[in-house]
Amino acid sequence: MPRRIAILPDTVADQIAAGEVVERPASAVKELAENAIDAGATRVRIALEQGGKTLIEVADDGHGMGKEDAVLALDRHATSKIRNSADLVGVATFGFRGEALPAIASVSRFHLTTAEAEGDGTEVEVTGGRVERVGTVARQRGTTVTVRSLFFNTPARRKFLRSTSSEARAAWEAVATLALAHPSVGFELYLDGRSRLVVPPAQSLAERLEGVWGQEIARTLVPVEYAVGAFRVHGFIQRPADAQPTGRRTQLFINGRPFRDSFLVRAAEAGYRSAIHPGDRPSLFLHLETASEDVDVNVHPAKLEVRFRDRIGAERAMEEAVRDALGKLEAAAVVAWQGGDRAWPSPRPSQAGAPVPADLFAPLSEPLAVELTDEPGAPDERVAARPAEVAIPITQLFNTYLVYEGPEGLVFVDQHSAHERVLYEQLMARVQQGGLASQRLLLPLTLELTDEELEAVENFRDQLGVVGFEVEPFGGRTVLVNAVPAPHPRFDATRCFRELVSDLARGRFGGWANRLERFAATYACRAAVKAGDPLDDRERRELLARLFACALPPHDVHGRSTIVQLPREELERRFGRR
Questions:
Q1: Is residue 170 part of a domain?
Q2: Rounded to an integer, what distance in angstroms lies between the CA atom of residue 357 and that of residue 333?
Q3: Per-residue pLDDT tens over the stretch 402-459
Q4: What are the backbone angles phi and psi of residue 26, rounded to the nearest 5°?
Q5: What is the three-state SS of 184-244?
Q6: I want to staple 47 with a disulfide (CB 3.0 to 4.6 A). Which of 115, 190, 297, 305 is the partner?
Q7: What pTM value is reported for the model?
Q8: SS3 for 285-313, per residue?
Q9: Rounded distance, CA 147 to CA 56, Å?
Q10: Which domain holds residue 255?
């Protein structure tokens, strides 16, 4: 009988390997650039023609190779990165598979020049996997790989390549990702002779982000630095007010290696809850670090996915890191709370540590009203009880904004957004203690609702009770409201209840993962003082004191800013004093 099993020729095996390693020109760019980085290059220059279909050239100033290594590197499974199976666990280098160069060479017209020192180097020419020539060439230290006519001998693969612009865009993304992962290395990318990305070596991470993502996005980012358990998270996230439904950028790294993980992205987004609108998607640039033996980077052919020994711990670290960074975030205003041990550093070095004026809350010569101070998160009583001194005036503009003179300019606070943040954090803090205080009504409110609103009342009955609404059915579409919350003197219980139930019936804030957080955000929005409500001097100071005691004072539950500063320098510039 004829034999059914046969050993594939090396050329066919190489082409099969090429199918795994080199899906498109961008894949070859990535593999060659990673080899350059592993070779200790400080600069990598990449040039493509027609999106890499006709030409890919990657040149570096790394340590290069001698003649024997240059030839051996084109053999399958040849590598300088690993020696045994144990080295596969926690490998820190990138191009370690030992298949990239022979795989690329098997489906292209391949040319390699390399030298370990300036002077005589080695030149190797390969066509379709067959070594045509090995010679000597004069060159500087480093390596240059030129790949022409990619997939020339596998037309079935070549015809599935996308348009030139699509392939060029994919190559740009590959180079940009490597540039972000290695700010110490300089990168140059040229597409059809045009410079598309140039970043110098030895940059800080913030400088590299600006060079790759652009100034418009980079200036909306704030730093992250957090450690919990076996994980450390650092990088940058977008300020809540700058998050948009579209146009975001997301980049994750594990121990310096770029990877994709939708679950970790969702965990990071969960850290934004109560700070952005559910439909917004913030840009994220986060490095996750853990012990190399606790993560497997070899579960994907292109090493784009990883497996964690402690998946839950990784997701928790991401969420807590984002929430911690937002907790340290300050809006454009220079604001710091002096009554306790919380301080809000300024994002600009010239303003670091600039506090709220010490006499801002001076007129509060007695403790705040009981219904305010008995809530968790209320300002320190030592501040509330400070003896009366010369007070900084707090003005109310348009019955909507509170304005006072800060250390370096005018500070504007949106009274509705500020109170919304205060109420939300108070409610979330009081959940474990039985809910907010309420008052029983001598005559219950009798309200008629729609079918959808009745269903919402039933679904959210427990949450309504937590904030102080005691509701019971009264027959048909009518309900009785026997008790209502009392968040402030101008609170309209009937209006708040109707708006709250209407929002819930229409599924507003439906993107919130946590049902209670969704409800708390809706309640806070409806119960807060409104734009147009006049506040007396004491109410203004109480609101500011309580806002600055919050965990996230710069933003309301929709991600809008609560605080904005008009710097003194800007005023002086407008009046021609600068």
A1: yes
A2: 13
A3: 999 888 889 999 999 999 999 999 888 887 677 777 889 999 999 999 999 999 999 8
A4: -60, -35
A5: CCEEEEEECCEEEEEECCCCCHHHHHHHHHCHHHHCCEEEEEEEECCEEEEEEEECHHHCE
A6: 190
A7: 0.66
A8: EEEEECCHHHEECCCCCCCCCCEECCHHH
A9: 5
A10: 206-328
